[in-house]
């Protein structure tokens, strides 16, 4: 029991005592009792709270315009929503992110908070619903079934824009490293085996290109999220809403957000359909998994520092062991890997929830919203820490790279057109056995001059940046010809 003052609120199930200073009411109280599951209130997603306030604000303006809400009540609601959008009262959005009822508890929570914020601002006590009612006034012309999905989509657009901004910055960081490492030769690998030379710059430029492609995929999902079903009310028929409401509220939503919202052509279909969430989820999974692969590469390339590849060094961020002094782990790429694993799991959740919808409504949009908003938030944070705490500080281990390239049998591949496959194979075998410099072996075998072999295995040639435009004479390794002949490749 508590001695704190309360107020009594009544719904169709009976009366409940609500803390007198709470800006939420009886419907929120029921949800708190029914869904003590996630231990995470919807306020953990500020974008969702702000989106709910925007939808309610647009509705109040539309209701005023079409004449179903008086000017004073509309103004009170409008002002309360503006304050919530400014960051006030988010702590009053307390219902759990996982809830039954297709988001009804979230909508009720928003209605009650907006009504009570407005009442307090006018000097009235919370709960004076005779002056401004959460359902009759704040929820006028609306249903959870059009408010909630519209707010969720809007919240996702807000979150997606921040993710895209981080995606662009991370892309630029990788691109800058591509320029910085443009002339740094390294050994390329396929199937974890030495292949042929490339530059470290090419590798990082490839990372930047991947991020650019995924940025475009993310951008293309924004217009899909701006199709809304406001005005559909319960199942898409628009019951309880004025015929002019849907077009009017959509226009006000566009004016408030600046996004090109459009009303779905078929509101019955739009109210039950969750395809856009699967589309977004798929794009997020693609983006996360591809960056996770890049993080795997960063961990491999930096492995060591003595017994691994050791081609690059990641910025040391923290001690890596409680038992091994001096050990430093690639913790930043590792955390991004884990974000990607979570995003992939969330995609399965979204898929199952979308499939589980029945008839005119999908009851599982709360878990869809939670899964996607969490993925967006975690990806944004993960991308930011990867850029700031890892990529921007990566350095190339030049001596290590030079040694690996100069003794790599992959360099021989570039000489094959000039000395023939058989001679190249013999050189590769010798290099593997002796760990000697390839150029030295070529010159000692009297296959080419030092000047010639140096030119052919220059960074530009080995990495393909300098194209060979003339026909290359193929030489049979069994007959190396006459070195005094100007046409001989050894000349």
Query: Which sheet architecture does the biggest sheet show?
Result: 2 strands, antiparallel
What do we call the CATH homologous superfamily of the largest domain? Fumarase/aspartase (Central domain)
- Classified by CATH, the class of the largest domain is Mainly Alpha
- Based on the structure given, which CATH architecture of the largest domain is correct? Up-down Bundle
User: Which structural class do the helices and strands define?
Assistant: mainly alpha
Q: What number is the mean pLDDT?
A: 91
Question: What spatial order of strands do you see in the largest sheet?
Answer: 1-2
Tally of helical segments: 18
Classify the beta-strand content into a percent band.
5-15%
Fraction of residues in helix: 55-70%
CATH fold-level assignment of the largest domain: Fumarase C, Chain A, domain 2
Radius of gyration, in Å, reads: 32 Å
Oligomer: single chain
> Total domains, how many?
3
Q: Which stretches of 5+ consecutive residues score pLDDT under 50?
A: 469-491
């Amino acid at each position: 029991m508590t001695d704190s003052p309360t107020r009594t609120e009544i719904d169709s199930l009976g009366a409940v005592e609500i803390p007198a200073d709470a800006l939420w009411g009886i419907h929120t109280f029921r949800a708190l009792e029914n869904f003590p599951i996630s231990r995470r209130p919807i306020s953990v997603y500020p974008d969702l709270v702000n989106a709910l306030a925007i939808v309610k604000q647009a509705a109040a303006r539309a209701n005023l315009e079409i004449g179903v809400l008086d000017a004073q009540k509309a103004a009170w609601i409008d002002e309360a929503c503006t304050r919530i959008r400014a960051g006030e009262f988010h702590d009053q959005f307390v219902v759990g992110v996982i809830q039954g009822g297709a988001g009804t508890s979230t909508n009720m929570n928003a209605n009650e908070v907006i009504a009570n914020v407005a009442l307090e601002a006018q000097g009235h006590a919370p709960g004076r619903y005779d002056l401004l009612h959460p359902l009759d006034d704040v929820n006028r012309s609306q249903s959870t079934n059009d408010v909630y999905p519209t707010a969720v989509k809007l919240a996702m657009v807000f979150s997606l824009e921040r993710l895209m901004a981080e995606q662009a910055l991370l892309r630029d960081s990788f691109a800058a490293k591509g320029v910085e490492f443009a002339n740094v030769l390294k050994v390329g690998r396929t199937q974890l085996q030495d292949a042929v030379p490339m530059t470290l710059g090419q590798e990082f430029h490839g990372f930047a290109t991947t991020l650019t492609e995924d940025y475009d995929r993310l951008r293309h999902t924004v217009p899909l999220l701006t199709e809304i079903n406001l005005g559909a009310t319960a199942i898409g028929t628009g019951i309880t809403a004025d015929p002019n409401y849907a077009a009017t509220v959509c226009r006000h939503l566009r004016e408030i957000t600046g996004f090109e919202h459009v009303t779905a052509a078929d509101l019955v279909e739009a109210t039950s359909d969750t395809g856009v969430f699967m589309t977004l989820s798929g794009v997020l999974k693609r983006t996360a998994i591809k960056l996770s692969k890049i993080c795997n590469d960063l961990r491999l390339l930096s492995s060591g520092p003595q017994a691994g590849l050791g081609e690059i060094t990641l910025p040391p961020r923290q001690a890596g062991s409680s038992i091994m002094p001096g050990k430093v782990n690639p913790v930043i790429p590792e955390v991004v890997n884990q974000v990607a694993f979570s995003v992939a799991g969330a995609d399965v959740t979204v898929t199952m929830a979308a499939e589980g919808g029945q008839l005119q409504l999908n009851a599982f949009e709360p878990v869809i919203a939670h899964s996607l908003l969490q993925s967006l938030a975690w990806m944004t944070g993960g991308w930011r820490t990867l850029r700031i705490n890892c990529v921007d500080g990566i350095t190339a281990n030049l001596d290590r790279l030079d040694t690996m390239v100069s003794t790599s049998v992959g360099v021989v591949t570039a000489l094959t057109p000039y000395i023939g496959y058989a001679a190249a194979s013999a050189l590769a075998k010798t290099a593997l056995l002796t760990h000697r410099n390839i150029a030295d072996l070529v010159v000692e075998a009297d296959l080419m001059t030092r000047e010639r072999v140096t030119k052919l295995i220059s960074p530009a040639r080995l990495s393909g940046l300098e194209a060979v435009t003339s026909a290359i004479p193929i030489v049979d390794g069994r007959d190396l010809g006459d070195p005094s002949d100007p046409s001989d490749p050894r000349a």
